[in-house]
Design brief:
Blueprint: H1 4-32, H2 38-50, E1 73-74, E2 79-80, H3 81-89
Antiparallel strand pairs: 1-2
């Protein structure tokens, strides 16, 4: 089980990213637009830099929904390999059976 603080910190990042997503997209569009004057684009970059760092989506870490583990994460199932194996062994995941040959 991951530390509760790390999991909560990541949840906070997710909330911030969601809140600032529209503003970030708008500022990025202005900063990339080659038709606009350089001063206006630079001002947009400064505003983008003044937003909270944790509002950037790249700062969000994929974590297991069950244990909070940050490594060995399967995106499709939103859980770590260890939690997946335990739940599959218990028969909690439909259609998944332990392999044998």
């Amino acid at each position: 089980m991951a530390k509760k603080a790390s999991v909560e910190r990541n949840r906070k990042r997710e909330r911030l990213a969601k809140r600032y997503a529209a503003k970030r997209d708008q500022l990025k569009a202005v900063a990339r637009d080659q038709e606009l004057p350089v001063e206006e684009r630079f001002a947009a970059q400064l505003k983008l830099a003044s937003l909270p760092r944790n509002s950037a989506p790249t700062r969000i870490r994929n974590r297991c929904e069950v244990t909070g583990r940050p490594r060995g994460f399967y995106r499709k199932l939103r859980m770590s390999r260890i939690a997946l194996r335990q739940l599959a062994s218990q028969g909690m995941i439909p259609g998944m059976v332990k392999s044998s040959w």
